Amino acid sequence: MPYSYVSYLDCPKCGETYDVNTVQQLCTCGAPLLVNYDLEQLKDNLKPDELKDREDSLWRYHELLPVADCKNVISLGEGMTPLVEMSKLGSELGIKNFYMKDEGIIPTGSFKARGAAVGVSKAKELGVTELAMPTNGNAGAAWALYAARAGIKSTIAMPIDAPEITRKETAVSGANLYLVDGLISDAGKIIGKYVKDNQLYDVSTLKEPYRIEGKKTMGLEIAEQMDWEIPDVILYPTGGGVGLIGIYKALNELKELGWIKGKLPRLVAVQAAGCAPIVKAWKENKTESDFWLNSQTTAFGINVPKALGDFLVLEAIYQTGGCAIAVEDEAMLEEQEKISSMEGAFVCPEGAAAFAAVRDLRNNGWFHDEESVVVLNTGAGIKYPNTVQVEVPTLNKEAKI
Amino acid sequence: MPYSYVSYLDCPKCGETYDVNTVQQLCTCGAPLLVNYDLEQLKDNLKPDELKDREDSLWRYHELLPVADCKNVISLGEGMTPLVEMSKLGSELGIKNFYMKDEGIIPTGSFKARGAAVGVSKAKELGVTELAMPTNGNAGAAWALYAARAGIKSTIAMPIDAPEITRKETAVSGANLYLVDGLISDAGKIIGKYVKDNQLYDVSTLKEPYRIEGKKTMGLEIAEQMDWEIPDVILYPTGGGVGLIGIYKALNELKELGWIKGKLPRLVAVQAAGCAPIVKAWKENKTESDFWLNSQTTAFGINVPKALGDFLVLEAIYQTGGCAIAVEDEAMLEEQEKISSMEGAFVCPEGAAAFAAVRDLRNNGWFHDEESVVVLNTGAGIKYPNTVQVEVPTLNKEAKI
Q1: Distances (CA, A) of A334 to A328, A331, A348
Q2: B369 pLDDT exceeds 90?
Q3: What is d(CA A134, CA B354) in angstroms, rounded to the nearest whole number?
């Protein structure tokens, strides 16, 4: 039995195919490449019940991941994050089955660990010794740390305004770190030139094919954790959109395997009002988005003015009957506090945005009664301490409360 | 089949017993109380293999936890943290089987979540509506958030020097938070008076009996994750020492159940050179420690000058043939960087102290060849960003690397 059923890469735009055993970046047409598996064969060889005894990490789905030899797996125990019931909030919003997939409970404190674990493992398998990327913070921290574990050299460029903790994480990994006085798109230009000049592996969002495969495991886990009864709606805070693309890809693979049945969940892309290119494109019924000028939001992780995979995000929304919705910064910060004090979960601002979107969609009647809803919280609130203001009394030693 | 096999509480000092169905604090003799289970009956009713299909949280061990009714469980998905192989570091140190139990991968980012989850759940079961505690930061954050989830009001006092992120977490939970211009012992005095005046539930370290039970699950998980072949040595960064007491208690319970066999692991208490009361007591072969004057260390979580459970920590060390060892702050920070750049794990300074201790103990011949060693990393490095100094270039948008 093979460890992986990976077969080949193909381009979702022009259909060109590529070999999975050599280093690949974008398609010659400029689009990201997707990974294909021999699902027909896998269908005969694996039943979902056999997963039960496996390790509690995303590697439990190794047949559906691109790493061919388990010796190349670089793992810090990532995945199988909790699916937490949010019954108090659900009851307030009138949603009976309300869950949070908590991606803060993972190495490096954000869902970026999934893409990094799978991407770095595959890079190691392909013999990569050096990689480079621009980042808004969390992805750079994750890739730098997993690369360190793999013995791969990394060069990371992030905006000077990226969350300070991610700067510390990247630095402590021993990566070559650069701060850029600009946006992630500016950091991207600098890295683009650097990888070209030095013929390095470019692991920018979607410029290598394997990050999606790591993110895909969120979809696999949600399905397994709900005992293969998939939810009606999944909401995802959307910057580059890789998680949403990955979840959609996972659900389609599971459907082809016959492990899930019926209609796919309606996928919802949640963006910040200050950076909402996907929402704009969806409202205009377009298949691609335009660059969002002067983007700004507290939810730094979703400050992505133009995503390379925008057409895949929009396809996933259209195909599942989902939607795209924008949330004001103020509303997401209010929601963050509400979730903490009501449910005990200190979520990141991006996750809070997705919860705020649930509130808006519920109020405008977009949910039906009795639907089951899953919100992705993409990272731990502790990575963004500046979103919480504390004004409390300081006592001297002899004080009395 | 009962959900829990909890039977009664008893005092490890004077032997007095107490009811588990009413609120209890310390024994009348001043010592902490311990929880007892009907292990004879459990032995007949549960086999370790039956655990395999259970949920990936510490509640998989519900028979060995004090909550009698599953309806009272307050969970954010805590537990079953990864046991990560540290093969590169192990190879450098000449330790063949070297693992890190990574307690950063848990709600609230520290192992304090375990004690809080079980402690708050039992408090809810006992009808508690309000609790109070002093904290060095992480425990307060965890108890405040779990209390919020349970609908229990909390009052938390922490030193003004406690890690700022824990202040944010506690505040965002909606707790009554006070900062104290002093040490945790000063905060403890203020809370002590407050709970007495208002007849509140005091959840200070070991002043209620259930936090140990939560921490105990680290020992249960290590045993299960190693397929019931327990390691030769476990190292634990020791402040209040509850984790070490809990692990020792867990291993004894597993032994009584017949789930593990042979000699218990040698338990090692690791402290900071600037606050090492347990180390001093162990070196002097004493059964209790003295208050450590003017304690100071970067590893804030183990800055505990005198632990209420010191005698239990020392007993666990003596009974297992372990030891106690102190580490300089400089050595732990060096080790923190080493672990990040070599193994890709950004550990907290307390965890780094335990790794530094492995290095010292290996150098002085305390380990035998071929031993298996487990280090507890008690929290995520991202909770202590100030331990990492970053000096990197800032580029303008047009720059070239």
Answers
A1: 10, 5, 12
A2: no
A3: 34
Nearest by Cα to A319 from A243, A266, A371, A366: A266
Q: Are A195 and A202 in contact (CB under 8 A)?
A: yes
Question: Are residues B385 and A165, on separate chains, in Cβ contact within 8 Å?
Answer: yes
Calculate how close chain A gets to B145, using CA atoms only, in Å.
4
> Residue B76 and residue A345: Cβ atoms within 8 Å?
yes
| Contacting residues of A for B168, CB less than 8 Å apart | 382, 385, 388, 390
For the stretch A344-387, pLDDT in tens is 999 999 999 999 999 999 999 999 888 999 999 999 999 999 89
Place of tokens 């047409």: A29
In A258-391, which ranges are continuous DSSP H helix? 277-283, 310-320, 329-343, 349-363
Question: Does a structural domain hold residue B302?
Answer: yes
B250 lies in some domain: yes
Does some domain include residue A59?
no
Are the CB atoms for A165 and B386 separated by under 8 Å?
Answer: no
pLDDT tens, position by position, B138-197: 999 999 999 999 999 999 999 999 999 999 999 999 999 999 999 888 999 999 999 999
Q: Which residue out of B200, B391, B397 would a mutagenesis test of the A interface target, given it has the greatest number of A Cβ atoms within 10 Å?
A: B397
Q: How far is CA A260 from the centre of its chain?
A: 22
Q: How far is B116 from chain A (nearest CA, A)?
A: 11
Please tell me the total count of domains within chain A: 1
- Please report whether residue A226 resides in a domain: yes
If you count them, how many residues does chain A have? Answer: 401
Check which CATH number belongs to the domain holding A259 and give it.
3.40.50.1100
Angle between helices A242-257 and A310-320 (to 10 degrees): 50
Query: Is residue B311 helix, strand or coil?
Result: helix
Structure tokens at B194: 């407050």
Residues of B in contact with A190 (CB under 8 A): 395, 397, 399-401
- Domain housing A317: 83-110+212-386
Q: Which of A382, A386, A389 to mutate to test the interface with B (most CBs of B within 10 A)?
A: A382
